[in-house]
Amino acid sequence: MADIVVEVSHLSVKFGDFTAVNDVSFSVKRGEIFGFLGANGAGKTTTIRVLCGLLVPTEGRVHVAGLEFTDDTAQTIKNKVGYMSQKFTLYTDLTVAENLSFAASLRKMSKARFEERRAALFKFIGFAQPPTALVRDLPGGLKQELSLVAAMLHDPDIIFLDEPTAGVSPVSRSRFWKLINRLSSEGKTIFVTTHYMDEAEECHRIALMRAGQLIALDSPENLKTTAYPEPMWEITPPAHADPAWLQNLREVAHGELQPYGMRYHVSQVAPPDWNKFMDRWGGTLKVRSIRPSLEDVFIRLVEGKER
Amino acid sequence: MSASVRVEGLKKKLGPNQALDGVSIRLEAGKLHGLIGPDGAGKTTLLRTLMGLLKPDQGSVAFFEEGAPASFMAVRPRMAYMPQQQSLYPDLSIQEHLDFFRDLYSLPSDVYKSKKEELLRITRLEKFVDRAAGKLSGGMYKKLGLMCALLASPAILLLDEPTNGVDPISRREFWDLLYRLREQKILIVLATAYMDEAERCDQVHLLDSGRLLTSGEPRTVLDEEQAPNFETLFMKRAGAM
Description:
The complex is a heterodimer of chains A (307) and B (241).
Chain A: E1 4-15, E2 18-29, E3 33-38, H1 44-51, E4 59-64, E5 67-68, H2 74-80, E6 81-84, H3 96-106, H4 111-125, H5 140-152, E7 158-162, H6 170-185, E8 189-193, H7 197-200, E9 205-210, E10 213-218, H8 220-227, E11 232-236, H9 244-253, E12 257-260, E13 263-267, H10 274-281, E14 286-290, H11 294-302
Helix pairs in contact in A: 3-5, 8-11
Chain B: E1 3-14, E2 17-27, E3 32-36, H1 43-50, E4 58-65, E5 68-70, H2 72-75, E6 79-82, H3 94-105, H4 109-123, H5 138-150, E7 156-160, H6 168-183, E8 187-192, H7 195-198, E9 203-208, E10 211-216, H8 218-225, H9 230-240
Parallel strand pairs in B: 3-8, 3-9, 6-7, 7-8
Antiparallel strand pairs in B: 1-2, 1-4, 4-5, 9-10
């Protein structure tokens, strides 16, 4: 099928006795924002490294941009994928221009093509700093955007982003996701890992990994419905709550209680008697019906198992 | 010993960058303080100044023990700092790390033994004592760093983005751990870029570009700023600038 740009079937990767990826299969469509979630050590980065041709699978088959990795196709595939790794990979003591020019030479790009792409990408991210600025002097968010530019210089169809926004400000994260959405609407395929569950909400589909295995694959909305068929409520504690309050909430919730910042999430098949509960603890207590967040989903599906 | 810190008008320039631009905050014992802000807000510079690793250009840091003024040198042995880039040894096991830090801190063997058992229990790392640090998951690695910092039973614990890059479940475990430490009246100061973690602190200090935006209990701060959460608060502030 022409619309499938990444196809993974029965992929396993072993490092000695350790199985990092265990019989994983999925496919990604053109233009999709595909979220790849899981606990630390679940096998996310290993899978991405296979898809970028940096690791050879122990078992299984991988097609990227319609091709299987062989000595003959590897270069063609690498021209079609861009990879922004977890660690910041630009040289902080080089300037913006020097970093990009270096990335372009690695890709063996012609000068004319490089300059054309650089101008287009600067326009795309709205980059307003002088190209002579040292990378170490850029704010965190701009460094990430510049890494994205470096990963996209050769105009790849598929872009792998491994925790692209770790430690970046909310404003920069939101800007970065606007860029991702625009790339997707232009037909680029985005394969992204993140530990920010609010970002995962922006993905079209999410693959959830646990201990090397794929345990769920669906849209964010469907994942919520599958993980939480029962209703959920958000409880905002009363101001100046006495300690007995939380104990009472635990009883009402029958143990299905998760702290959520300063609030709590409660899920129950049969709705608790909230009116009675609110009467007891006063007017500043708030109870409202909510959809589960992806953090709730993540915790329910991954919690308590070997990770 | 319960320790508290008063920071007044702190200024620090790093190269061309005004990392701290007149920051004043109070850090009280037995509370979990959050330094909240994006990259470049000044969080790390503030922690490093508290730890005595950087000298301020202007302003002062005053320490108190049981409410009475105390010198930095008197307090320093009871301070622990977990930097963002932890200097753990990838080829040493958890057990070997703890032994190494026992020697660095010159802990008597009975104190070390009971402390080690307690820490392994609360971090739930008992089963992994022989695993090399380089083979730990992100969350476990952070917990090992915390254990090394806690071995000397500090009164002040400074943590620089301890949960960055850690998955949601490991983050929750880490926070459960911090709450247990708070019960022991340790002053905890934690820097984070996760806005949902701000809500979990007793006191938050919101920093941006080296300036303190506001301080207080999370709920009070949100009410005053009329923001539903800290993410929105920062977006609003950034939009206004």
